[in-house]
Amino acid sequence: MSQIFIDELKAAGIPTDEDSFKKQFEQQLVESGFVVNNQSPLSPFWRLQSALVAKPALQLIERMTSNIMPNSFAQLAHDEYLDLHGQSRGVKRLTEVKAQGQLRFYRSETELELVIPSGTLIESLPINGRVYMLELVSECRFNVGEETQSALAQAVEAGQAYNLAAGYYTKILANFENVTVTNDVGWLVTAGQDVETDENYRERIRAAFAQLGSYHVDFVYKNLIATHSGIPYDNIVLEKGAPRGAGTANAYVFLEIGQVSQSIINSINNYIAAGNHGLGDDLQAFAIPNKNIDLTVTIAQKNDTPSIISNVEQFIRAVFRQNDAFKPTRVKPLSSFSFSLLNAELHNTFSQLHSVEYDVNQLESGFWLPKLQNLVVKHG
Asked: How far apart are the first and last CA of the chain?
């Protein structure tokens, strides 16, 4: 991309390489009447000239064409430069958020009251060597005869990695006999999020132009939802065509990690209904439908290597948005998933792999998101 800016400087007659700087310097000397008799490349004068003029000027040009000039445009800007573009348009980068959700506790003995205090820590299963931890925000109180109760918990750190799928949070870091815990489907109340990526932020900056108009168009609604809920801009799919009559549309949303809960959907819909919509518009948000997928993966490892079945399983679960411990290409709605790409990513991640086979060869998703129902990873 920097070549565009190099060509622009060349068109303006500005040197862009060391030889051009030297030639221009020599020309300026001649035009000023300064005659140099010894023009040998080995001349101390010319070596000094190269050190004092050409090389620093070349460093400046390289910095301009690779950093300063591209960052002058929102389409190419990154990091703090993109923040400046956003601030000039009244759009701030979304900050990180800690995940919050309801955990479900079970006990087998119900003869006595039991209180699990706020501050109690709950851990996930280890995923790629990392354990994710939640802290109870409110106490969990069992009355006599009660077998199950729920309590609100919050991630100890911010980030989308804590939006784990159902069944990951299972370990209480306290001595409560005969008590178990889990996170159910739809456990999230507030989805955890990382600091907004440049790509997502750039889309919202672009959407700011559409908000200047009198009508709420796609960009406006996607920006409203992304700003309010932290759902990535590209994870909002609009269904138009008046699904509930004239002036109606649906917005289907999904998370990078974990599953959108009804609490999140309610928050989005309440926000839109509170005047954040166009005149006569009826837009409703929904979690994108899921379609259950059964998948069996057979791996062969290189000789004398320890089993990697557990890590391969978690890698594939990351593909289906159940965890963020690995960074594979994830399944999406309205797309064709490439198992050959998954194969390459697995081999790049696990050097112990010899071969990988799948019992599903093609996955074409429609207006729905593939969801793992049964996954089996085994040695061949």
From this structure: 46
CA atoms of 280 and 242, how far apart (whole Å): 12
> For position 183, what pLDDT does the model report?
97
What is the pTM (predicted TM-score) of this model?
A: 0.85
- Give the whole-angstrom CA distance, residue 315 versus residue 310: 9
Which residues lie closer than 8 Å to 268 by C-beta, 6 or more apart?
225, 228, 229, 251, 253, 285
94 to 51, 53, 84, 344: CA distances (angstroms): 45, 44, 14, 33
Backbone angles phi, psi at 70, to 5 degrees: -60, -35
At 170, list the tokens: 């299972």
The pLDDT of residue 214 is 45
pLDDT (tens digit per residue) in 331-368: 999 999 999 999 999 999 999 999 999 999 899 999 99
Buried/exposed 132-142: b ≥16 CB within 10 Å, e otherwise: bbbebeeebeb
The pLDDT value given to residue 208: 76
Residues 6+ apart with CB under 8 A from 308: 299, 301, 350, 352, 353
Cβ neighbours of residue 54 under 8 Å, at least 6 residues apart? 18, 21, 22, 25
Give, as one character, the DSSP assignment of residue 70. Answer: G
Rg (C-alpha) for the chain, rounded Å, is 29
What is the C-alpha separation between 133 and 124, in angstroms, rounded?
A: 6
Q: Where are the domains of the chain?
A: 2-72, 100-190, 198-285, 290-379
Classify 319 in phi/psi space as left (phi over 0), alpha (psi -120 to 50) or beta: alpha
Angle at 234 between CA 228 and CA 239, to 5 degrees: 85
pLDDT at 62: 87
Maximum separation of any 2 CA atoms in the chain, in Å: 105
Determine contact, residues 2/66, Cβ cutoff 8 Å.
yes
Helix (H) or strand (E) holding 268: helix 262-273
